[in-house]
Amino acid sequence: MAIIAVACEKGGAAKTTTAMLMARDIARRGQTAVVLDADISGGATTWAQTAEENGEKLPFPVISVNLPQLKRPRIQTMAGKETWVFIDTPPSDTGVLQAAINTADLTIVPTQTGDADLVLALETYAAAPSALLLLTRVKQRTNSAKQAMRRLAEENIGRFDAVVPEREAIRRLYGTDGYDKLDYPMVVQELMDFMEQEAPRW
Ligand SMILES: Nc1ncnc2c1ncn2[C@@H]1O[C@H](COP(=O)(O)OP(=O)(O)OP(=O)(O)O)[C@@H](O)[C@H]1O
Ligand SMILES: [Mg+2]
């Protein structure tokens, strides 16, 4: 079992999208994934329900969880051993956010590239024992993206090499069983490589 928290204090950073599309890609590869929805507003749960109502049942479960359930043994009971667990977290409930990143093997911090976005993303990054930033909704070839990448390199902040551009095709996947074929598969591959190197118990 690998537990991946998807967390960022900034709202709208693409946490839910990242958790759902990474789990979806893992299912596409024939592996087992589960999304734990730790956000009381239930974005991941609504995504799964909407898909199901439209006759598109997702190939992985989305389970709503609360603070005391965010402990490794509890998660293992809910999710099973051979599973990639993604915890979708709320932007502002710091108790839930901290519990998720403490229990996780790795925290993925999705963030847009603006200065105001990075301030909050780096706070989440610093609060996590093991974390990687994921640049999302990137408007490529803009100064903002270039500056962010330069700054992260200078400050030695760990990040995914893959970046997720702002794409209408990704936005439209909300509430469907569709999967992203271009960007999230590269993020998942990097995650798998990282986990193999850094967390041999997986
Ligand atoms: N790569 C992308 N390209 C275009 N739109 C995107 C992309 N990623 C996410 N979005 C859109 O951005 C919005 C915010 O994404 P999402 O709900 O995943 O963020 P969040 O961090 O979970 O937000 P919250 O903090 O409210 O939980 C959604 O409308 C989503 O469809
Ligand atoms: Mg969300």
Average pLDDT for all residues: 95
Structural class: alpha/beta
> Could you give a short account of the major beta sheet?
6 strands, parallel
Under CATH, the homologous superfamily reads P-loop containing nucleotide triphosphate hydrolases
Task: Describe the protein in words.
The protein has 202 residues and is α/β, with parallel strands linked by helices. It has a single domain, classed as 3-Layer(aba) Sandwich (Rossmann fold). It has helices at residues 15-28, 43-53, 72-79, 94-103, 115-127, 143-154, 168-171, 184-198; strands at 2-6, 32-37, 62-64, 83-88, 106-111, 131-135. Strands 3-2-4-1-5-6 form a six-stranded parallel sheet, sandwiched between helices. The longest helix has 15 residues, at 184-198. The chain starts with a strand and ends with a helix. The mean pLDDT is 95. The structure holds adenosine-5'-triphosphate and magnesium ion (MG). The site of magnesium ion (MG) has 5 residues, from helix 1.
Compact overview of the structure:
The protein is an alpha/beta fold and 202 residues long. It has eight helices and six strands, in the order βαβαβαβαβαβααα.
Features:
6-stranded parallel sheet, alpha/beta, binds adenosine-5'-triphosphate, 202 residues, binds magnesium ion, Rossmann fold
